[in-house]
């Protein structure tokens, strides 16, 4: 017998767990009068920052935020003025010196300031994590209240990878002191485009 | 047989009174953050009910869901392996690494690989394994094990970390600023990520319907490890399966709030295939998990989502430290898992519980932890594997309580005589209970007497 068969047999043998069925979550979960202010409040609490701007202000805003940074990479449909092109790199390791990554978020979640990021046009997944700073651009209309609504919007049929990002990377492993910037980005901006 | 003994191990920790109270406070702080986060969600209790329901449903149909998961993962080009025990798990991982000529591995926090003792297994075979979660890295450099499943280095002070980093990665000995130390670790580990040929991660949730796995971290270490090298190996226990993607809505809302009081982890990544031109493997491990399904008393223990809330709230864990449990998972959930899997070795763990029930109250999937620990004591007594002192005491208590008149008489006698006895007589070597605590003041009347009087007055 293979290990798989042994495991399956052990599970079937006298399994005493009662099947209670699966719950359904239609129209379930907290909702907010102003999801944007909730998102903003939650993002600040985890060390990130929210901005609201017009489409034509995108370039100035990003260049002003990161005037001193050298390597700015982007796969965003809104922002094409980066000077490093991650999709042209054969090897993900060549992304190691990126100072700022500008990426598109699919939608934002108000209850926890997470943004679903699953760019079909992004070649290297590591772009979201290896950059020293990250800017996620989200169309202002794309926001949901809670995670139940979030998963309703995602279809895994055609995507191989996606991640919820909530603020910059962080740790509190040394005496519970919060330090922003563990392995991933040291700053995390979410820009809503009006 | 190991001479492991929780009270003795805890004694070492308690000896440093100042550190014990500091540890207690640090964890209580996390517990309070959990309370605030849970109270911000009006439907919190409903979420707990749903979570318990989903997990029980999955466990009742675990064979079907494992097969569904395997089939769907394979469709996405993921290679799925099954391992019946720790040894097989380690061998599978090693074989994959060897086939890919891997010499350097970055690992993100995974209690399963700790349970299987994967690191020493691979190191013996010449493979460098670097734990990349900051807390895990700290304990790895100190050649220790994690003392908590979410906060692996919670037992250490920043000065301890400064000393370790000074010795191992050359930081300034006198600088114990957490930002400075974290940044030094960041730079050091970044090189490890860039040089690794494979990334090993744990799994928080495996979705049967989509055939992918979800990994949650704050640091982004699992993501760096799984997206830079071409090879990603994800290791999971059979209990990590959930049926549908929408069930993630329930668990991602509960997990981080229960663990650290955060609304969600910084990264919640859904891996449904390898990176470009890469390979993704998933190793599904039993290692003494299936017997839980056959026990009415302990089956719910498999529902655990490893948030650590039960240890943060446990008055015994907070005051005895994770290492005193000497089991891969400490605290209430570890005590029940350990006692069931290896009752002879971990016979003292279920007694490291005050039966206060706080663990069950905070558990996001409503595991009946305190009841399980209470039941373990009886099982151990029945199997005759508890210490003689405990056995004789329990036997005497049973004998006495079966004789209500005698019990009342002796209680009355004790109430009258104990206050008159000198301390030296009360705290003798046979009084184990009174070793580190005072005998309470004797009440004038017993509960039975008070009850009878009140009943008469009614």
From TrEMBL, chain A:
Q: Which domain of life is it from?
A: Bacteria
Q: Which InterPro entries match?
A: FTHF_cligase-like_sf, LUD_dom, NagB/RpiA_transferase-like
Give all residue intervals belonging to the LUD domain: 94-193
Instruction: Supply the name of the protein.
Output: LUD domain-containing protein
Which species does the entry assign this protein to? Halarcobacter anaerophilus
Where is the organism placed in the taxonomic lineage, from the top? Answer: Bacteria, Pseudomonadati, Campylobacterota, Epsilonproteobacteria, Campylobacterales
TrEMBL record, chain B:
* Top-level taxon of the source organism: Bacteria
InterPro entries listed in its UniProt record: 4Fe4S_Fe-S-bd, 4Fe4S_Fe_S_CS, FTHF_cligase-like_sf, Helical_ferredxn, LUD_dom, LutB/LldF, LutB_C, NagB/RpiA_transferase-like
A GO BP entry: lactate metabolic process
Coiled coil (residue ranges): none
Q: Is rRNA-binding a UniProt keyword of this protein?
A: no
GO molecular function term, any single one: metal ion binding
UniProt xrefs under PANTHER family: LACTATE UTILIZATION PROTEIN B
* Protein's name according to its UniProt entry: 4Fe-4S ferredoxin
Q: What is the lineage of its organism?
A: Bacteria, Pseudomonadati, Campylobacterota, Epsilonproteobacteria, Campylobacterales
